[in-house]
Amino acid sequence: MMATGLLTGALGGVGGALIGILADWGEFPWEGMVYGALVGEAIGVAVGVHLRNHRRGSFPLVLAGSVIAAAGTLAAADMILDDADVPGVALAALALQLGAAV
Question: Cβ neighbours of residue 47 under 8 Å, at least 6 residues apart?
């Protein structure tokens, strides 16, 4: 289930990044890519976990958990932007997001 969530999250992140580049969100060119990737990844993880679970359970709850974890990641990265531990926070947040979705 986690492997499916990782795969669909990665696909959603790439798709969201491409949409973000084309939509030209934000002040800087890479800003739209980051926001698009975050949204696509959050939705992709939720969809992958829900489909792998044979569509049992509530998809809106899985999606809400994934979106809340992604928003927490964005807030944590914003708080420690000048710090050197951003990759560690991102990996911990991905684990939290997968755990919330599963």
Answer: 8, 12
